[in-house]
Amino acid sequence: MNIDLCKIIELPKIADPRGNLTFVESGNQIPFDIQRVYYLYDVPGGSERGGHAHKGLHQLIIAMSGSFDVVLDDGKKKKRVHLSRSYYGLYVCPMIWRELDNFSSGSVCMVLASNKYDEADYYREYPEYLTALSK
Ligand code: TYD
Q1: Which domain holds residue 7?
Q2: How far apart are the CA of 121 and the centre of ligand 1, in A?
C-alpha cells in the first residue's frame, strides 16, 4: 500500500455559536464501514503509541481534543502528520506502519475502525512487516 492513499479527510462541520458539531457516517465521509471505535486518553507526556501495521484494517484517526502526531510509513516513504482539529480525520489504509507521539496534555485520540479488534490482523514487528511487503 502506498502512503499517498493515507489522506486528511475534512469532515462536515456545522458551525454554531452554541458549539460546533461534526459527524461521520459509515461509508459516506470515509471509505469504509465502522465496526469499532476506540480512543486513547490520559496519555502521559512523551508517550508513544502505535508501532504496528494492520493487514486489512482501515482506520480514521481524529484528535478529539488537544493534538498529537501520526508518523506513517509504507516501507519506502515516511510522513509525519500533525492532528489538532476535531473536524479533520486521518485515513490510514491497511499495511501502513504507524506511530503516534507528541501528545499534548489532555489530548484524546479517537479511532474509527473497519473491523472489530483482532490481534491476528497486526504486524507488531517492523522486520516482519517489511517481509510481508516484499511478498
Ligand atoms: P494497541 O493496538 O497495541 O494500542 P496502540 O496502537 O494504541 O498503542 O492495543 C493495546 C492493547 O489494547 C492491546 O493489548 C490490545 C488491546 N486492544 C483491545 O483489546 N481492543 C482494541 O480495540 C484495541 C485497539 C486494543
Answers
A1: 3-133
A2: 12
